[in-house]
């Protein structure tokens, strides 16, 4: 019974230990890395927006044909 109780108490301790190890390994990106990430995110936004626009452009006439012009 004591071993189970000790295991339950170890869970938060392990979580905090793992969390501090993770935070200590994290580094702030330099200018080049930040620019690269920003460019990739911007291209992703443009691609997804264009894809959504094309799908909507195709969906509206198809929907009007199926529903019946109203």
From TrEMBL:
One of its GO terms (cellular component) is endoplasmic reticulum membrane. GO terms for biological process: intracellular protein transport; protein targeting. It is found in: Endoplasmic reticulum membrane. It is a single-pass membrane protein. This is Sec61p translocation complex subunit. PANTHER family: SEC61 GAMMA SUBUNIT (PTHR12309). NCBIfam families: secE_euk_arch. Its main location: endoplasmic reticulum. The gene is SSS1. Gene3D superfamilies: Preprotein translocase SecE subunit. The lineage of its organism: Eukaryota, Fungi, Dikarya, Ascomycota, Pezizomycotina. GO terms for molecular function: protein transmembrane transporter activity. The chain crosses the membrane at residues 40-60. Belongs to the SecE/SEC61-gamma family. It comes from Pseudogymnoascus verrucosus.
């Amino acid at each position: 019974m004591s071993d189970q109780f000790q295991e339950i108490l170890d869970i938060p301790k392990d979580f905090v230990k793992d969390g501090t190890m993770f935070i200590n390994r994290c580094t702030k990106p330099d200018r080049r890395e930040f620019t690269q990430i920003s460019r990739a995110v911007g291209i992703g936004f443009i691609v997804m927006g264009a894809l959504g626009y094309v799908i909507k452009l195709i969906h509206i006439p198809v929907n009007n044909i199926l529903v019946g012009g109203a």
